[in-house]
Amino acid sequence: MKKILIAEMAQEVSTFNPKLTDFELFQIHKKNNLINFHKDKPTQIGGAIEVLEKSYEIVPTIGARATSAGRMSKKCWKILSEEYIKAITPYIDKIDGIYLSLHGAMQSIDENDPEGWIIKKTRKLFGKNIPIIFSMDLHGILTKKMISYADGFTSFHTYPHIDFHDTGIRAGKLLISNINGMKFKISNIRIPALVRGDELITQTGCFGNQIKKIKKLELNNKIMAGGALIGNPFTDVPELCSQIFFIHTKNEKDINEDLLAIGKEFWENRTKMQSNLIKIDDALEDSKKFNGTIIFTDAADAPSSGAPGDSNFIIKYLHKKNYKKKVLAPITDPNVVKKAIKSGINSELYCEIGGYFDKQFKPFKMNFQVTLISNGDHIEESRNVKRNSGITVVLISNNFTIVCTSKPISLFDRSLFIANGINPKSYDLIVVKSPHCRPEYFDEWSEKNYNIDAPGSTSANLHSLGHTICSRPIFPLEKITNLKLKIEHKITK
After folding, report:
1. How far apart are alpha carbons 143 and 160 in whole angstroms?
2. Beta partners for 102?
3. Residue 61: what are its φ and ψ, rounded to 5°?
4. CB 3.0–4.6 Å: which of 33, 93, 102, 294 could bond 29 by disulfide?
């Protein structure tokens, strides 16, 4: 039976987060533990296993995944890259294909293209005749090195992401075709645009139109796989951009028209695909007309996008404005957690909160009652996988309920609140630190969601971030006129 090597390396990084990622942040699964973690789960590897195990022996090597955060430290990347090589090297000349589950928005202090490094190193070790297929997030940055050393790839078709499993299935099928001798062509268009905002929601926004057209081409077998990549505006790397790609077997002329049309539509919608931010003063004033729950989205401090989660901008503002209604907000502050543990449950605690990592946020003092201390374990509502926020405390200060974690945790659903005995629907104002959550988590039952123009390392106010190394010009950082889209092609083995 032919053998398929599987490995995973995944993290989404914000270059503008001052807190570097240490190796300890990565969750490591080796050999059979990698299979056990993903099998029958709604993940990329879970989907790939479902397809591949029917005809191939799965050879699990290493899985390394971390919550979104700042760039990896030099030490972190050194250990991670060494562990990867150590895990895959024993299988040189012993396998027939390789599937890699990647993200596309990793970065370290000394490596701007970790995914490209991984694919190139894998190719050099296993040779030109072993098929390498990878899957990636649509927020990934597809680099020339990734394309050069891989045989094909797939990407998410949804935002917010719900097709992890399906993306893995498509990657598995692509790998099988390649093992069976099918040669692919890779065609892609690089679009110098950074995009954010509601129009990227694939169910309702204009970005979804490009995805629908790509999926139709896949369904009709005109292309083997395709995707629209919007990069990650917060990962400041040389090849940062948006892209449209096709994996196909056709003559270039047969697919050029479709590829150019989708790329042109994306470019024409670039202005529409920007965030509509609202000043916090205006949001608070407008919210007075509602009696039910309102959402203040603080996407500028979204841990799921790479921020540290320690912004106190909104709670400080509401506190100073003497806001009287019930507020629920998350924040990351290990120092506050330590003080709460020392103080004990039901104790009174007067301490500073916020700005633990990102010093642009000045801590401010509040009186709290410590009402709960937990180990931080919880099940992610959206994907039914285990997560841990470190020791977590619930603090109450009059009408404010603060869920304070000791480490950043993705907050794209209600898991953290529910795990700590909190029903979000019982609050008047909820601070949500994610750019977009699935509608059922907040939007469908709340009165209004305000996308607050706040400072932070994942701010949709892209001019405020301070890009220094991404290729320029790029919209909206610069105005670009008379852009002529160009198609790049690569023929695989």
Report:
1. 23
2. 9
3. -120, -75
4. 33
Measured at the CA of 66, the angle between CA 394 and CA 302, to 5 degrees, comes to: 55
Residues 207 and 132: their CA atoms lie apart, in Å, by 29
Tokens standing for 432? 């949500």
The model's pTM: 0.91
Integer Cα distance of 68 and 303 in angstroms? 6
Per-residue pLDDT, 91: 98
- The CB density around residue 137, as the number of other CB atoms within 10 Å, is 23
Q: Rg of the chain over CA atoms, in angstroms?
A: 23
Bridge partner list, 296: 431, 450
| 423: Cβ contacts below 8 Å, ≥ 6 apart | 417
Number of residues written out for the chain? 493
Cα separations (Å) of 107 from 10, 48, 124, 313, 343?
Answer: 10, 25, 21, 27, 39
State pLDDT tens for residues 446-489: 999 999 999 999 999 999 999 999 999 999 999 998 899 999 98
Give residue-wise pLDDT tens across range 159-175: 989 999 999 999 999 99
Neighbours of 265 (CB within 10 A): 16
When the pLDDT of each residue in the chain is averaged and rounded to a whole number, the result is 95
Question: Which phi and psi angles does 63 have, rounded to 5°?
Answer: -125, 130
How far, rounded to the nearest angstrom, does the alpha carbon of residue 144 sit from its chain's CA centroid? 21
Residues 6+ apart with CB under 8 A from 251: none
Spatial separation of the C-alpha atoms in residues 402 and 393, rounded to whole Å:
8
